[in-house]
């Protein structure tokens, strides 16, 4: 077993980012329950302020249900250009400390500060300083998790939200993970959590008692991931440049549509949007996937891989038409989406390294 160098990883997560930006820019919204997203029958909440979350309003919830939970809820249309502007300012702060920054989205990122530009040996102090600078330069609050790897830092950043941080020192990792509720493990969604409950797994300790064979049998490829992370082993590095694996767009309709002619009109618009995004990212792809969500909420995908790279609206739409006519629609449709993968940025993934048990070394954290 190879002795691995101890790392100092910070996960910074902005608090209710989209909603907080709206409240920052519009003082009349401060202290009120707001949701960023559409208020229509088919609208979805993209983000909710903490005032709205007290009523159970959360992201990905339908606008109808959100309004039912919180009758005083105020809907605000998203302004992604504004969110990107502020996100870029926040990332500028990150780069003052390290070049090893891996953004996950506009509102969160991993930072490896094992060796940092400030020469500060304490990742805890760096995280606090970063959060203070974000507040000073943007007026927004951020939370942070600090630990020995990305997984634990990600989990820890949620512990003292909003506007807080949590450090899990090397010697605390084992106890921290054993006491953690299984639904709080990053990568364990509601469906997986329910399955684990049925198997008698409620905490990290319960998960740790299950063998690798048991977890592989019940959770497939994810079994090995669960086996190692509950032991504090997650060797994924902070990657400063993340390679895009796919690019797509989708649209949810105000009313269900059943006419293929109407569907083609919508798909043409989506193809145009993808063409713009491909041009902006300077990429092309070989695999087209058509995503269809029916009125009964069942989801279907149809894919085709070409022998050449494409990026034009015409070629994307031609292939999508083939996929659309591949078989008859079983219901009316509420959502259509197109994605392009197998991009020309893809590189052969290195074979997954054998899991190595890291010798946990104490250091000033």
Walk me through what this model shows.
Belongs to the DNA polymerase type-Y family. One of its GO terms (cellular component) is cytosol. The active site is at 108. The structure is a single chain. With 365 residues, the protein is an alpha+beta fold. It folds into four domains: 9-15 and 81-169, Reverse transcriptase/Diguanylate cyclase domain (Alpha-Beta Plaits); 17-79, 3-Layer(aba) Sandwich (MutS, DNA mismatch repair protein, domain I), CATH 3.40.1170; 172-229, 5' to 3' exonuclease, C-terminal subdomain (DNA polymerase, domain 1), CATH 1.10.150.20; 246-343, DNA polymerase, Y-family, little finger domain (Dna Ligase, domain 1), CATH 3.30.1490.100. Helix content is 35%, strand content 22%. The protein is built from 13 helices and twelve strands. It has helices at residues 17-25, 50-53, 63-69, 80-94, 123-138, 150-156, 173-179, 190-198, 204-208, 212-219, 222-229, 260-281, 313-324, and strands spanning 9-14, 34-37, 45-48, 74-76, 101-105, 108-112, 142-147, 165-167, 246-257, 285-294, 299-310, 333-343. The protein has a five-stranded mixed beta sheet with strand order 5-6-1-7-8. Strands 9-12-10-11 form a four-stranded antiparallel beta sheet, covered by helices on one side. Strands 3-2-4 form a three-stranded mixed beta sheet. A hairpin with a 7-residue loop joins β2 and β3. The chain is globular. It starts with 8 loop residues before the first strand and ends in a 22-residue tail after the last strand.
């Amino acid at each position: 077993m190879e002795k691995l160098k101890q790392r100092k990883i910070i996960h910074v997560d902005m608090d209710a980012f989209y909603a907080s930006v709206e409240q920052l820019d519009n003082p009349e919204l401060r202290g009120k329950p707001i949701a960023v997203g559409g208020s229509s029958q088919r609208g979805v909440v993209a983000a909710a302020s903490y005032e709205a979350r007290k009523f159970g309003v959360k992201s990905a919830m339908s606008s109808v249900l959100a309004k039912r939970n919180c009758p005083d809820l105020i809907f605000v249309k998203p302004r992604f250009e504004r969110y990107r502007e502020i996100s870029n300012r926040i990332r500028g702060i990150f780069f003052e400390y390290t070049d090893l920054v891996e953004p996950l989205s506009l509102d969160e990122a991993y930072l490896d500060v094992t060796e940092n530009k400030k020469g500060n040996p304490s990742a805890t102090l760096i995280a606090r300083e970063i959060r203070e600078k974000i507040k000073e330069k943007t007026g927004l609050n951020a939370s942070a998790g600090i630990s020995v790897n990305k997984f634990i830092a990600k989990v820890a950043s949620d512990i003292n939200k909003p506007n807080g941080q949590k450090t899990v020192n090397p010697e605390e990792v084992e106890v921290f993970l054993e006491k953690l509720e299984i639904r709080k493990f990053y990568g364990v969604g509601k469906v997986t959590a329910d399955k684990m409950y049925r198997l008698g797994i409620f905490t990290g300790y319960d998960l740790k008692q299950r063998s690798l064979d048991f977890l592989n049998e019940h959770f497939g490829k994810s079994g090995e991931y669960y086996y190692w992370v509950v032991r504090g082993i997650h060797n994924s590095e902070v990657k400063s440049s993340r390679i895009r694996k796919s690019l797509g767009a989708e649209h949810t309709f105000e009313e269900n549509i059943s006419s293929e002619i109407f569907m083609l009109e919508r798909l043409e618009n989506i193809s145009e949007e993808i063409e713009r995004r491909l041009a902006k990212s300077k990429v092309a792809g070989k695999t087209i996937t058509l995503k269809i969500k029916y009125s009964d909420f069942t989801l279907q995908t149809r894919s085709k891989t070409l022998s050449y790279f494409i990026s034009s609206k015409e070629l994307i739409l031609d292939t999508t038409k083939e996929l659309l006519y591949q078989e008859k629609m079983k219901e009316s449709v509420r959502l259509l989406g197109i994605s392009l993968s197998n991009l020309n940025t893809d590189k052969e993934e290195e074979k997954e390294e054998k899991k190595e048990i890291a010798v946990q070394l104490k250091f000033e954290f």
